[in-house]
Amino acid sequence: MPYSARARAGAPVSAPVSWTELRDIDTAARWTVRDADELLKRATSRALAGWGVADQVLPDVRCAAPKAGDGRTAMATQAAPIFDAETHARRWIADYCARTRGGDVLCDSGDPAWAAMFAELASVASDDLDHVRERVRRHAADIGTGFRIIGEADERPWPVSPVPLLIEADEWAGIARGVTQRADAWSNAA
């Protein structure tokens, strides 16, 4: 699930919402880092069942193949693969891992979740990660994701990647506890 803490007062967190929930949300700061436990529960709730899944069917495109003996063209009996996301995902992973020196979670883990995530990314990106990278950058700019360095007047765009970092649930729970602890400490100090 795409959750993202914002560099704004109150540390709001972006979160996916269902269409029915949307009408009851009156502010972009509906959730904050303090709501980490609620957000984790929502991730598996019925409210978000099917989130990110499109009801889309591709047309049945078939290859023209010569029919034996009559010199004419007939339709093949099998659909032609238009785009194989898993093949692109394997190539992307292999290309990336060939350039790393080890100690990389993608290349060293052997976790099939990475291959599945890259296959999903390939299904969105076709074979053009630059296009997806630009879409992500544009979306981050559109929603005002940025940061400011002390002493600088202008806000800088937040550097983002179209490749999400996969974090196990137990590791994420530890991060959520730590963020909540720090938010509480800052609130108590203020």
The H-and-E topology, N to C, reads as EEHHEEHHHHEEH
Structural class category: alpha+beta
Count the E strands: 6
Number of helical stretches of at least 4 residues: 7
What is the molecular shape?
Answer: globular
For the terminal residues, how far apart are their CA atoms? 32 Å
Helix proportion: 40-55%
Q: What amount of the residues lies in strands?
A: 5-15%
Poorly predicted runs are 61-66, 70-80
Overall pLDDT level: 78
Rg over CA atoms? 22 Å
Q: How many strands, what sense, and barrel or not for the largest sheet? A: 2 strands, antiparallel
Strands in their spatial order, largest beta sheet: 1-2
Protein described:
Residues 2-43 form the DNA ligase D polymerase domain. This is DNA ligase D polymerase domain-containing protein. InterPro entries: ATP-dep_Glu-Cys_Ligase-2, LigD_pol_dom. The two termini are 32 Å apart. This protein has a domain at 10-50. It contains seven helices and six strands. Helix 3 crosses helix 5. The strands form three sheets. A two-stranded antiparallel ribbon has the order 1-2. It is of the alpha+beta class.
